[in-house]
Amino acid sequence: MRLLAFLILLLVPFAAGAADHGDHSEHVSDLDGFRAVHAWTRATSDDTTLVFMELENGNSATIVVNGGQSEIASSGQLVGFVLKDGAETWQDIPSMPVQPNHDLHLEPHGLALLLSGLSTPLVEGDMFVVQLNTSIGDLMLHVEVEDVRAGHHSHAGHSH
Question: Which residues have a Cβ under 8 Å from the Cβ of 17 and sit 6 or more positions away?
Fold first, then answer.
């Protein structure tokens, strides 16, 4: 009996830790084997924001990403980071293919989804929905708002 009580006391912290980790289904969106993982943006009071994520194409066909939309923005388009005359800027990209069994990372100083015409400030800890437009349909994403200085998703590095 003492051994059982000891084992229960020993296991309780692990169970509590697992419960604290929670359900991370909001970090992964899936549409027929095409996944978006860890969609995030930075806190801002501007009328634009850049959304970043990891895209994984588990299909046997190329999937094309064409942009996105959200109820909190008037438009959403793919953009790529460029240096033009020494200044950082973002260039419109009409579409981006993701090859079969390959990943595409939308990240700072790379590719991103630019949401323009934001109707509300984005506050760290908030979450909002974006529809990523693809050649196989719209993929619903839950975008987490990170710190204004964030360089990556705060949960990046754990697997789903």
Answer: none
